[in-house]
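Many introductory courses stop at the sequence. We go one step further.
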Amino acid sequence: MRKTYADAIAREQDCVNRITKSASTEQLEKLDADRDLTFRFMVNIVEAYCICPTEQLQLAAKRLDAILGAYHALNEKAFSEETAGIDGLLNDLGGDAAKADIELLKLENFVSLLSQQNQDYKDLDRTRTDEYTARVKVETSEARKATDEALDAIVRRVNAMQEMEPTPETVAFIDAVNQIYKKYSDLIAAKADKNKKPDTPIV
């Protein structure tokens, strides 16, 4: 029955480690492309105003360009890193001085658009994460049930052999398994004690 048990363990491992494509992946990619476009547009507009012949507009653009420069190639970063980066950029653009420059260059609508696009991305990404977690939990629970049943069958088989016709080999096998079980039980117990919070805070 060893193969049955090994197959059950392998199934559990597959459930936890399997990488699957969520139904919302394409939507996330579209939302990311939209916010990339808005970000690049803002960068291009600000860079264009940096050589504007009107000094007031040029100075405002240069101040905004300094802020945007801290987020260079933001649209080329990994999705999660870009999401956090846009949050940081929007926070930097939220200061009074930056707001005045944004209004002067007529970029308010695009800043608002970028904020909404980033929020839409985060909202959808959160539902995708919940979807994956729920799916893995259900599938892993089913796999664990099959593993437990396989182990129970092995234990019953060995116990029956021991009752009906005990042999030195059977006794040695049971002893070896019990030693292994005790070893890992002790390790788990020790780890649990180590991670357990004290009943009273240490002053």
